[in-house]
């Protein structure tokens, strides 16, 4: 094993450790806080977190073994099962992020009717659709025998070894990524850009009120005036920064792998095995970043973590209700945190 392989193996080990700990902490927060569980986004977060954990304990270790051994790390049946999970979990993860973006769009654009439009039943139906959508392609791949060990990615995933099936496999691969990666990316862009438009509109209204107040308060200290203007600037940047994080992490983690899979279909483009494994590691890194992007940095989850830590340190009893008094908008609106 050369230095490249050792570095990729270390990257996989680090990703596995962060993903396992962070996703387990999200599950603990969901179990601890009844307030979080009562909200519709909790179902999307639960679906995403369970998928990330399954990927961490099944697919990542097999890929690590493939990188170290430079060959198929398990028997054919186990590898086909891992390939099925790899395909399903990748699509489910992307569609879950799209579902979360739709939830935020409804919460920001229709705040007064959010509870009527996004009930737990509606969230459960959306999760059921993501499962059916994500299961369709690996199920078809099982029938067509397109699951197995792919040496380029050192992973058990979608692959076809028969030259006469090259065209059909290319069409299948293109359709899979179009209806998972591209569809989710379009939904993310449409929903978050509308959220950003509303957020900027509210920021402008607040800015007008702030400026009018500063004009009226002629005796206000210059330092207070500067702090108000600085807060205006931070407020305008906050929503943009958060939405850029949602879309940016999606692209950085998934786009290299998807583009590599599509380029792989063309024999005219040589692809290094090191780049193939690195692109797969980037896709896996989404499982490690999701808990921070969608959960742990939000107010309710931070408070739940504090309660859990206090329980561990025996400072005060654990509260099954988790949080009290925090509005749902505080955890959905990107401009409120």
From TrEMBL:
Domain of life: Eukaryota
Keywords for the protein's UniProt record, in alphabetical order: Cell membrane, G-protein coupled receptor, Membrane, Receptor, Transducer, Transmembrane, Transmembrane helix
InterPro entries reported for this sequence: GPC_Orphan_Receptors, GPCR_Rhodpsn, GPCR_Rhodpsn_7TM, GPR26/78-like
Membrane topology: Multi-pass membrane protein
GO process terms (BP): adenylate cyclase-activating G protein-coupled receptor signaling pathway
Residue ranges annotated for the G-protein coupled receptors family 1 profile domain, each copy included: 22-294
Residues passing through the membrane, by range: 6-31, 43-69, 81-102, 123-149, 169-195, 243-263
CDD domains given in the database record: 7tmA_GPR26_GPR78-like (cd15219)
Pfam families tied to this protein: 7tm_1
Molecular-function GO term, any one: G protein-coupled receptor activity
One GO CC term on file: plasma membrane
The keyword Chaperone belongs to this UniProt entry's keyword annotation: no
Protein location: Cell membrane
Designated name of the protein: G-protein coupled receptor 26
Organism per entry: Balaenoptera acutorostrata
């Amino acid at each position: 094993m050369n230095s490249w392989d050792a570095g990729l193996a270390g990257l996989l080990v680090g990703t596995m450790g962060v993903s396992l700990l962070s996703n387990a902490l999200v599950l603990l927060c969901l179990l601890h806080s009844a307030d979080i569980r009562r909200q519709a986004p909790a179902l999307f977060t639960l679906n995403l977190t369970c998928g990330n954990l399954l990927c961490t304990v099944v697919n990542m270790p097999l890929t690590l073994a493939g990188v170290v051994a430079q060959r198929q790390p398990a028997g054919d049946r186990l590898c086909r099962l891992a390939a099925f999970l790899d395909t399903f979990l990748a699509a489910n993860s992307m569609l879950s992020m799209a579902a979360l973006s739709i939830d935020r769009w409804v919460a920001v654009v229709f705040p007064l009717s959010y509870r009527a439009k996004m009930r737990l039943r509606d969230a459960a139906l959306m999760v059921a659709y993501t499962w059916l959508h994500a299961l369709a392609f690996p199920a078809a791949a099982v029938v067509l025998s397109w699951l197995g060990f792919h040496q380029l990615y050192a992973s058990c995933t979608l692959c076809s070894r028969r030259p006469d099936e090259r065209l059909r496999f290319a069409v299948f691969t293109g359709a899979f990524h179009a209806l998972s990666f591209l569809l989710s990316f379009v939904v993310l862009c449409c929903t978050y850009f509308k959220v950003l438009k509303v957020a900027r509109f509210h920021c402008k209204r607040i800015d007008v009120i702030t400026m009018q107040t500063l004009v009226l308060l002629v005796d206000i200290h210059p330092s207070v005036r500067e702090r108000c203007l600085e807060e205006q600037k931070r407020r305008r940047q906050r929503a943009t920064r958060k939405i850029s994080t949602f879309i940016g992490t999606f692209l950085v983690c998934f786009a290299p792998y998807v583009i590599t899979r599509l380029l792989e279909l063309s024999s005219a483009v040589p692809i290094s095995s090191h780049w193939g494994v690195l692109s797969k590691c980037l896709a896996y890194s989404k499982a490690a970043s999701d808990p921070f992007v969608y959960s742990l940095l939000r107010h309710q989850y931070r408070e739940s973590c504090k309660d859990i830590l206090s329980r561990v340190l025996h400072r005060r009893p654990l509260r099954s209700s988790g949080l009290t008094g925090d509005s749902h908008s505080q955890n959905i609106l990107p401009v409120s945190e």
